[in-house]
Each structure stands twice: as C-alpha cells, then as structure tokens.
C-alpha cells in the first residue's frame, strides 16, 4: 500500500513538473484593470512565469477552501466539546454516587463491587 502511495505522489510530481516546463513564459499580473488604473493613479504589476501563476492559484484556492471549511465546522466542534464536558461531569457524578454507595462498607468488598 505504501508503494502505491509513493507511485501516486511520483505521478503527481511528474505532472506538475511537465506543466511547469510547458508554461515557462512570462505573464504580467496587474492589481487593477487598465480602465480603472487611471482612477487610482497607480497600477502595480509583476512579471511571473505562467506555471507560478497556475500553481499559486491552486494553492490559494486550497487555502481558502481549508479556512472556509474550518469556519463552517465551528458549530460541530463546539457541540463536540460541550458533549465531552457533559460526559466528564456525568462520570464525576457516577464516581461520587458509587463512593456514597460504598461508604461505611468493608473496603475489599467495595473494591470488588466497584470493579464489576
């Protein structure tokens, strides 16, 4: 199974390298469209290889997706934490009730009942 995973990683790496080699041409990235750049009196731009733009866009999309999903699951995480606190509280209460039940009894018998 481990070799299958390594094979998939290798195929993915070869695909990324081939995309990078096929798209080495420089492209100009601008912050604003040229029509709006006159309103702000500045339009910074940068020259990057196309594969950097493609891979950067994929990484940015993954990052946005991960953050979006983390925010979306907040309610589920909060509910799980609430249930865990409630379970710990109930376990402490059970231990307290068992201790009250065995109060005044022989310690050996109380331990045997507690174990079962």
Automatic annotation (TrEMBL):
The keyword Cell wall biogenesis/degradation does not apply. Keywords: Cell membrane, Coiled coil, Membrane, Transmembrane, Transmembrane helix. InterPro entries: LapA_dom. Residues 80-114 form a coiled coil. Residues 46-101 form the Lipopolysaccharide assembly protein A domain. GO terms for cellular component: plasma membrane. The chain crosses the membrane at residues 46-68. The keyword Cell cycle does not apply. This is Putative integral membrane protein. It comes from Sulfitobacter undariae. The lineage of its organism: Bacteria, Pseudomonadati, Pseudomonadota, Alphaproteobacteria, Rhodobacterales.
């Amino acid at each position: 199974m481990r070799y299958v995973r390594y094979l998939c990683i290798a195929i993915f790496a070869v695909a990324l390298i081939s995309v990078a080699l096929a798209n080495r041409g420089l492209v100009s990235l601008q912050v604003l469209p040229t029509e709006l750049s006159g309103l702000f009196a500045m339009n910074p731009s940068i020259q990057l290889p196309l594969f950097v733009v493609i891979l950067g866009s994929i990484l940015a999309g993954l990052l946005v997706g991960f953050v979006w999903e983390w925010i979306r699951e907040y309610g589920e995480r909060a509910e799980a934490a609430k249930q865990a606190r409630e379970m710990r509280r109930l376990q402490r209460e059970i231990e307290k009730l068992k201790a009250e039940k065995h109060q005044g009894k022989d310690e050996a018998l109380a331990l045997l009942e507690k174990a079962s």
